[in-house]
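User: Predict the complex.
Assistant: Input components as received:
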Amino acid sequence: MKQENIRNFCIIAHIDHGKSTLADRILEKTGALEKREIKDQMLDSMDIERERGITIKLNAVQLTYKYKGEEYYLHLIDTPGHVDFSYEVSRSLAACEGAILVVDASQGVEAQTLANLYLALENDLDIIPVINKIDLPNADIDKVIKELETIGFSKEDIVLTSAKTGVGIEALLEKVITNIKSPKGDINRPLRALIFDSLFDSYRGVITSIRVVDGEVHVGDLIKMMQTNAIYDVIGLSINTPKEKQVTSLKAGEVGYIYASIKSISDVLVGDTITLEKNPASETLPGYKPMKPMVYCGLYPIDASKFDDLREALEKLKLNDAALTFEPETSKALGFGFRCGFLGLLHMEIIEERVDREFNIDLIATAPSVIYEVLLNSGEKLMIDSPNKMPKKEAISKVLEPYVKVNIFSPSSYIGPIMELCQNKRGTFINIDYLDEERVTINYEMPLSEIVYDFFNKLKSFTKGYASFDYEVIGYKESNLVKMDILLNGEVIDALSVIVHKDFAYNRGKIIVEKLKEIIPRALFEIPIQASIGNKVIARSTVKALRKDVLAKCYGGDITRKKKLLEKQKEGKKRMKKIGSVELPQEAFMSLLSQDE
Amino acid sequence: MRSVYIHIPFCENICSYCDFCKMFYNEKMVDSYLDELHREIKETYQNDLIKSIYIGGGTPSCLNIKQLEKLFSIINIFKKDKDFSFTIEGNFESTSFDKLQLYKKNNVTRLSFGLESINENNLKFLDRKCDILKIKETIFYAKKLDFDINVDLMYALPTEDMTILNKDLDFILSLDVNHISTYSLIIEDHTKLKINNVQNISEDLDYLMYETICKRLKEKGYLHYEISNFAKEGFASVHNLCYWQNQEYYGFGLGASSYLSNKRMTNTKSITQYLKGLYSYYEEVLTKKEVIEYEIILRLRLNRGIYLKEFFEKYHKNLLDIYDYQELLALKLLNLEEDRLFIPEEKWYISNEIIRRLLEAEVHG
């Protein structure tokens, strides 16, 4: 394989702009797959990815394409499309020399289009702008071309495609060859290979996706991970075409997989550099960052006897997801469970859904929390990932919380509501950019906890679904934060405690208390609900006692039905958690997330 | 001693809330139905002594005189106990004086009328009609002929407020009958109401109505002997008590249920199946534990509750050794007076929750 005939590229796009479908069409056009072999969106191999239309795990495929009599090797690296996985995106971009930027012909440029474009430019990639879905009746190609021109592309470079009908795919492949540079690495230097993904295979252990930058690696080599200094034996090398093909070596510029009998995915850090043990490189490749969970929540099995099953499920998921963290946690209210850390809200939802779907465990999830930095009067510094770990007010000197820079992309007609939303979320305005007369990007600095707390839904409803957003963590800032407890029947329900800004506590307490009143079923006795900060009650409400639950009629024909009804009620109660003297449905916890102000 | 239920599924008018097995009256269909009913009874009845018969519906009174005579001749097969009680259901419109006399001749002892409400909005909501004069006249003759009489009252309709309820109660009390059944509206599956997505009134208003009914009926000397049933002293429904005391009964006809030798059965609701002689639709053979569960669920609907000695004689076990009711006693959700365990009347309205808790307090091992 001649290095100058290799092209490493990825496809980047806003969610739903047709990235995966376009990838399928490229596979088909290069003959990698027959049409009949293509399941929709071949690269998204997990069910959940296909269903949600998002790519969670990375994939790299080698394609061959003849152009002007020369054979070219195209390595298509698929990237996840969501902000939660932006580090993974940035590492897979670092494995490429070029990127296809896909924009939907009817939607135009969106927040993640820009975010991904900036990431690609940071990585010095050659960009091929593509307007996709041109077959759609509401496609507005001229408008999207203007938008692309505004963000710095020239009209002649833009390729028009329809992944659905196959129009423009050949032109696109030619552009990949002519406009994207070939890899620059030096085969004679010591091995440096970038880890841009890994996944766990129950037969072969951890499979590591790599891009060889310099040198070469052979089956049988001893390799060294430069961050962890761990050394492994290379058992096999392969490429994906997209059928797996064993190879004996991978050289500078090439993309493939290493099997090295690595037992745990946590030993393989995305962004780390692989070198040879014998002849190590002196410098790592740039850009490595350890992945840190940003959002935490408690996960508890509804059925307490499933605690071990839950542990096993999380362990299995962790095999394929180095970013997931968990440790045992106990709650007076919920019993035994795990404090889990996630990259973001979507990551959290995906894990919860997978536990439910793949392992069949009904979960209660506590309201998500971010990590707070707490400085004590004693000078000690604590990182707090759960409201219940918050020290007593008197011991605290100050509390800092993570801030993010939010980049909201929206039609200009919604500027007013968006700014109002951001102000209410403790946002600080930075600037506003007009992309054209109709579209703007609005930048705010905002506490991450406010994003975690129902920002996305609000933004969507304030803008009728037109706005999209993206964020990056920019650091910690001091805030006036307090822990608010919820009491049922006079008892603190630890799982319902939250950390809130003091100015917002009263309002939020009132909302939570009212919400709980709606959700908690009436019981034999009335249940007082209170929200308190320390010993001060800031909001209260009461669930009235059950008034009437009896079935008036019960005669011959109704008797078995009456018994079945009681049995159903008994079953229903089993799904609820008994907390002190109160039976609480699962929704009570999630309801703390969504609120109507 | 067993009881007998016979179902007559025909009606001249279909009410919006009704989920019983019913269909429009059709003379020919009734004739073949009665033939099949006759066959079913002959096939199943074991020639034992019968304590009560209840002919329910549908609207049994919508059968014509000839058909009613045929029905009574079929029923003649049953060997009747000396204190035998015989109820027939009906509506006021179709109950003529001739039919009342026919009932009398055939030893019917008790009439049960669906009255439900006299309020115009309520009636419209229920798809019912009502003729006050006809009601008064029918009750007058029925009393003259010495029938025991039950009248049904329905409440908690979305069209109803306390004023309407009180007017309905005024009217029902003015009839001075010896038994009154009351039902709050239940929106059942497969009824017009459910299909039209009608919502229940608030739990609080429902409760207030229930409380008002109990109070006003009690003032007039009615004994609240079962959650929904009120009777003057000595006039509790013999037949329905058989259900609530977990005793056995035959069930004949379309959709009818029976409880015989620890087996609960329900007949098909399909008239074509039934006319082909394929009666049974659902069968449940009860374990001893289930029999006891039924005993509890049903008996606790009654003001008398469960007599513990009687329970021991029937099941050779103390109730306390099966279900630990001590906590419920402490919470005053159950009362124990000498040998009698019962839900105090002021807690009847939440009896489901109490029974559920009792059944969950099962003693293991």
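Chain A is about 25% helix and 35% strand.
Let me know if you want any component modeled separately.
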